[in-house]
Design a protein that fits this description.
heterodimer; A: 304 residues; alpha+beta; 6 helices; globular; B: 170 residues; 69% helix; 0% strand
């Protein structure tokens, strides 16, 4: 390659960057989220249940550069001037819209240095399908409690979250869009369940945590609001907890909030107490197998 | 009450977030995923701020965190939210994609293997030297050179023949 070709590509990247319009995220929101992450991590690392997780993360940190480690940085580039607003190699900001969603580079992983076996990926895929099935199974309970007419809740959930809760136990959940026929905008109902939880609110910010009357057959209920979402949490008789969050604006999927969500606190608590919202024993077993497969994949991927 | 740490961090974010976002977007190709990467990176940056802010280049550290965060996501795809695209759903409100004359370059960048993509983004967006890219990614300079050569061949073709490579999976 000659210098002219390299120069052409660099200029192409400058033009490309100029067409990427960042979101209008407030600095205060970034700060707030970053502080929350810091508190979450502190809580996780200091928790007894977090030891297992810290072990995995710590092992990974030994194998791969991480943003949390002391990073040996390359020499300061010209871009290090914090007054450069657009880009290291760009000159002016652009109002051009951001690009649309592209195909994810999953297929390109095989061309990287890591190699993973089909068994592990099959395990992961099987886990994903199981979790999908489980979450889909929650929809009837959600409809019964929140949307008996079936006019508001999306027919399919729009995402899937899974991981470990503050007690180091498996938690999974989903966010479901809430809309009103004939009206623009979208709200969201988030439901998460774990196998063993702790009483109280799980907010990582200093927010007011209100203790509510526990629904029949449960051990406690709490409510708090964080980042515009109102959360209700119910500790059930078996020790599991369910968190239900509602927000008139589904920020990931819509720019416009719905005018209202006709859901009462009693509706939400009824959903959180519904025994159909649960993680099955099969899921717990499967998660252990999945975690082992995940660990195997990580070691293979990072070991090369 | 805002602390000095918060104020300094906020000032940095106000100035440099767009650059971090564009870096993430070039790496992952999805605006929402890029936002996640940036937010995750800013969280890590905040935790390390006292130490990082004493470094010669906060940018260099932040850049590495963004690249590492993307790498973590790629290596652990099952940890990410997986949007379900369906005609039954209200589709996300995304800005209309418009790369204009750069569409072919964007598509070519998307089609690069992730390792090559990282190299060219650091080389040609951040303007790093081969040695600096190698240090950032923890690979040899030879690896950077070979990956850059292959990637540039593909990108040059996109720049020279935009009509042949545009379209992609849109």
């Amino acid at each position: 390659m000659n210098e002219q070709h390299e120069h052409d590509v660099t200029q192409g990247f400058e033009r490309l960057a100029a067409r990427m319009q960042p979101s209008d995220t407030l600095v205060t929101a970034d700060l707030s989220r970053s502080r929350s992450q810091a508190r979450r991590r502190t809580a996780l690392v200091s928790g007894v249940a977090g030891l297992a997780v810290a072990g995995v993360i710590g092992g990974a940190a030994l194998l791969v550069p991480s943003g949390e480690a002391d990073l040996p940085v390359a020499g300061a580039p010209s871009a290090s001037d914090s007054t450069t607003a657009l880009a290291p190699a760009s000159a002016s900001p652009s109002q051009a819209p951001t690009p649309s969603k592209q195909a994810e580079p999953q297929a390109s992983q095989s061309s990287g240095s890591g190699r993973t076996g089909p068994d592990e990926w099959a395990m992961i895929a099987a886990f994903d399908r199981k979790v999908d099935d489980l979450t889909q199974a929650w929809r009837p309970a959600m409809l019964d409690a929140l949307d008996p007419s079936g006019r508001h809740l999306d027919k399919k959930f729009s995402n899937l979250d899974d991981g470990l809760n503050e007690a180091g136990r498996f938690v999974t959940g989903t966010s479901v869009g809430w809309s009103t026929p004939g009206e623009s905008g979208m709200g969201v109902v988030t439901v998460k369940a774990d196998t063993v939880g702790r009483p109280g609110c799980t907010s990582y910010e200093k927010v007011a945590c209100e203790k509510l009357s526990a629904p029949e057959g449960t051990r406690g209920a709490w409510r708090w609001t964080e980042f515009g979402t109102t959360f209700h949490r119910v500790l059930r008789a078996d020790g599991s907890t369910v968190v239900v969050g509602t927000n008139r604006h589904f920020g990931n999927n819509s720019l416009t909030p719905v005018k209202s969500m006709d859901i009462t606190q009693a509706d939400i608590l009824r959903l959180a107490a519904d025994p159909r919202i649960r993680i099955t024993d099969t899921m717990r077993t499967l998660y252990d197998e999945f975690a082992a497969a995940q660990d195997k994949v990580m070691k293979k991927t990072m070991g090369n | 009450m805002a602390t000095s740490r918060d104020e300094d961090f906020s000032e940095y974010v106000a100035h440099r977030r767009p650059v971090l976002y564009r870096t993430a977007l070039m790496l992952c190709g999805d605006p929402h995923w890029a936002e996640d990467i940036v937010q995750n990176a800013l969280g890590k940056l905040y935790r390390s701020w006292r130490r990082v802010s004493r470094m010669e280049s906060v940018d260099a550290y932040a850049r590495r965190v963004v690249v590492s965060s993307h790498l973590d996501d790629v290596r652990r795809p099952w940890r990410r939210e997986r949007p379900v695209l369906s005609a039954d759903l209200d589709q996300p409100n995304r800005a209309t994609p418009d790369f204009g004359d750069e569409e072919a370059l964007w598509q070519a960048l998307r089609e690069l293997p992730v390792g090559q993509r990282r190299v060219v983004v650091l080389r040609h967006y951040w303007g790093l030297s081969v040695a600096e890219v190698a240090a950032d990614l923890g690979v040899s300079t030879g690896t950077v050179k070979s990956q850059a050569a292959v990637a540039l061949t593909k990108l040059r073709q996109a720049l020279a023949e935009p009509t042949l490579t545009s379209g992609g999976d849109r």
